[in-house]
Amino acid sequence: MTEEQKLQRATFHLWTFAISKLISIFGNSIYTFGISLFVLTLTGSATSFAINLICSVVPRTLLSPIAGSMADRYSKKKIVILSQIFAVLIVSFLLGYSLLFELNLVAIYITTAFLSVTTMFTSLTFTSSIANLIDDTRIQRAMAINQSASSAAAIGGPVIGGILFGVVSMNAFLIIFIVSFSIAVILEATMNFKLFTKNEGGEIEHEKMFKSILSGFHYLRKDHILWVIVSTALIINFFFTSLLVGLPFIVIEELGIKSQHFGVIEAMIGGGILLASLYFSIRKDFKYPLVVVKNAMLLVSLLLSVIALPLLVNMSYLMMVIFFISLTFLIGVTLTFVNTPVGVMIQKGVDENYRGRIFGILETMAQAMVPIGMIVYGLLYDYVSPAWILIASSACLILVTAYMIRPSVLRKAYPSRGDEAIQTKKFVTE
């Protein structure tokens, strides 16, 4: 295949990837929204809702390193397609069960746990395949389109789900999921997952699973810059749960903002991510992405403390709603300036044989901190003023970011950047 044919094929991959992700995530978002409301309607219990959430998070946290290792060891295309087919079969079984019997919590919990595993295998393997599907110059664009599809689905899925819920039966939500994932499988079957592979030798099946996962950790530890990125992400995810737990508590409980207005406030995070992702899809790659990540992290840390402002200053109801809509939109934009450059750095900087394992380890470390952070911050918000919690978390995030991505780390990541600065200074002086 000539270079021109490869580029044409990569363009096909770019749009097929975008469409398949949009359709599958949209279907999954509508299904997740519907099943969550169904659980709440069926039981009226927040505990039941939380158990369903745990069934989704725990399998992903435990099995992500295994999924990453398998993505490196076996055919990525087979893993993506088979995991999508298994997802279709799982929901089809739930649909069959609901037609024969009434839906119950046990069936929903089991389905949620299995779906969490299959969708995790799909998303992780797909993400680790981007550099094999798309040419190097358009990896940032592919990552941005992936983020755009996720954001659009996160905004649109609940909207459509909210319209459908109460109008159609729960079986309609299951059918939407089955149809969307089936279309995604057909689209993904047309893609060549080895178009830009540098690993002509193929799979590394000879390596045992546990040893394969350990070698992924060793690879991560040896790459100082990569280790800084993953360690920073781990710590940041812990402190950032102050927003996940605190925002609903502050907006609804402390400030008395109506639930429908809170829905708009939360949706604006997705809106900000969507707009920033579209920007990344059309701009050139950043020359120094780690610098962009540091600056964005410092900004999002400051925005976290700004959330406390309505607790300290009197505002009218309308002012509070506009304030939070604007703030969550900015947080969404800023988070994209963290996530997209990090994703591009891993795609370009990690050896193809380790890419799946690195994404798997990153997924596990990120997911593991969320429930821990939720427990810690859940207790703190019961006993400490929310304003001080947010300000303290913001300060901790600033200190962590400033230390983890300190000037010496940036000099190590970009040795030429210092030379450019010296040359620029010399030119200005002259």
From TrEMBL:
Its main location: membrane. One of its GO terms (cellular component) is plasma membrane. Keywords: Cell membrane, Membrane, Transmembrane, Transmembrane helix, Transport. Pfam families: MFS_1. The chain crosses the membrane at residues 12-31, 37-58, 79-100, 106-127, 148-167, 173-191, 225-250, 262-280, 292-311, 317-338, 358-380, 386-405. One of its GO terms (molecular function) is transmembrane transporter activity. CDD domains: MFS_MefA_like. It is found in: Cell membrane. Residues 13-410 form the Major facilitator superfamily (MFS) profile domain. It is a multi-pass membrane protein. This is MFS transporter.
